[in-house]
Amino acid sequence: MKKILLTAAMLLTMMAISLNAQEKEWPNYARYAKSNKEILEAQANGAKKPLAVLMGDSITDGWYPSDKAFFEEHNLVGRGISGQCTSHMLARFQRDVVDLHPKYVVILAGINDIALNNGFSSKENALGNIISMCQIAKQNKIKVILCSTTPADRFSWRPEIKDVLEQSTWLNAAIKDYAAKNHIRFADYAAALCNDKGATDAKYSKDSVHPNLEGYKIMESVLLEALHIR
Q: Residue 49 and which of 40, 58, 97, 124 are 20 to 30 A apart at CA?
């Protein structure tokens, strides 16, 4: 009996250590580790560097599976992770963007900071982290394209937050202003997706945050213009 109890105690301890390690690895470096390695190996063998890496959250995460052809046709790499805030993206920016040596990084971020996905945050903190990513990109001679996020007016997973549209509108305006003052290209997805009330049009999204395929197609047109491809 003592041996059984001791074994059970050891297993529980190992499980607790494992769970604790997973919680500490909150940026999710592992998500794209294999893909990053493959891209770098291909570059070493003469493959082209990515035209752009798309850094983001679930909006970017869902883009590639919705329209793989768009990414493949234009040599784009998706590095979105569902649920992430700008702090997560800032932490993994070196490995998931800089190390891949793209010409551009497309930063679409901030909506989950407003949703408080990682605990306390603010739209101002989101802006600060986005600016930090821009500075890192500049230091590494990577051109930046900043994006307005979808103009959400509600969070299905955070119904207690009532001023979603007000905050997302503020953040998008602040990102646009920073881009203009620093001569950074700006992809205004919000302007292309919104209805007459300033929120994401229902025909482009069921929950006002995550685009459907039609919404992504609109965003693709905006992004191609920002990349000077169209």
A: 58
